[in-house]
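Researcher: Before we compare anything, I want clean individual predictions. No alignment, no superposition, just each chain on its own. First chain goes here; please echo the sequence and then give the structure tokens.
Model: Echoing the first chain and its structure:
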Amino acid sequence: SSLFADMAEGRPLHIVLRDSTPAELLSFLVVLVREFSAMPQPVKLDLDRSSFLAIAGRVKFDPEQMANIMSNIIENACLYAFPGTVVRIEASLAEQNLLQVRVANRGRPLGSGVAEHAVEMGWRAETARDVYPGGAGLGLWVANELIKAHRGRLTLEERERWIVASIFLPL
């Protein structure tokens, strides 16, 4: 069966976790950001490389699925950011030995209930439909399911006029 079908049916996902480092995750993100930056879009991507390099420890992730996760989250951040703004990608050490990867943009406020519902399959905020009518409401749901398979979690929040998607992965 396909990974998508497994997710839709709630079956366990079979991913291959590889022992890695935050610096190796950074190398992979550099390529992804370069690909996004080559596409015509009204925002600039800013990858804070030093934030990844400053974190010691090991992190386990499936490179192919992490590409899907980060691609979905970065694409959302670019789509819903105000034109002419920056999408920031950075890492830090969070509580309980967690690697936190943040993708932050300046866009419309999330609104009530959006953070809780945005990871549900097929759910889209009213403001999202106004900005990008073509979406199916699958990107953050897919990212969330894959992050859970990595024993991590995804959060969305507004912080000081930034919309922040955070991925937490165990170190």
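Researcher: Okay. Second chain, same rules.
Model: Second chain and its structure:
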Amino acid sequence: TEIKHVRLAEAQLDRLVATAAAAYVAAYVLGVRDRHSDNILVQKATGALFHIDFGHILGDRVALDATDFAATHGLRRALRASGDADRWEAFVALSGRCFATLWRQRAFVAAFAAAALGAAPPGGGARVAEFVLRALGAPGAGGKHEIGSDPEAGGHMAALARRAPNGAPAR
């Protein structure tokens, strides 16, 4: 079910915030592209958000694509429409904390991603690990942003999350 069609109770909204932060941060780190409302679903019973359609990963873009951190307008509207203006900010803050945790464990995260996804892309596990380390801003990885601390990692992701619905429109 799309977010815009779901009315959620308090516990479900809390689950939506938590699962959305985890799902969007994971999608960012793995370079999952083609994120739009048809590829992001919410389970009515629990409020859990999850991604589907992983045909474009490791930065493989489609012709018209959203920003790298592709939280949708629908998610922001749903969280703000809950009557609790802080839910969107809770999502932003939790996204920052999720990313900082992955950044702190970046060697393990890259190795796990390489083992889990290494057989899929050309270049195998080494390409996956390199992509993940760049996405995490690991020092010396050659990514867009080199991150040097947990607070910096959290701030970087929180800024991306806050700006996301204002970026390129998702279909």
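Researcher: What stands out in the second chain?
Model: Residues 37 and 63 are 17 Å apart (CA to CA). Additionally, The two ends are 16 Å apart (CA to CA).
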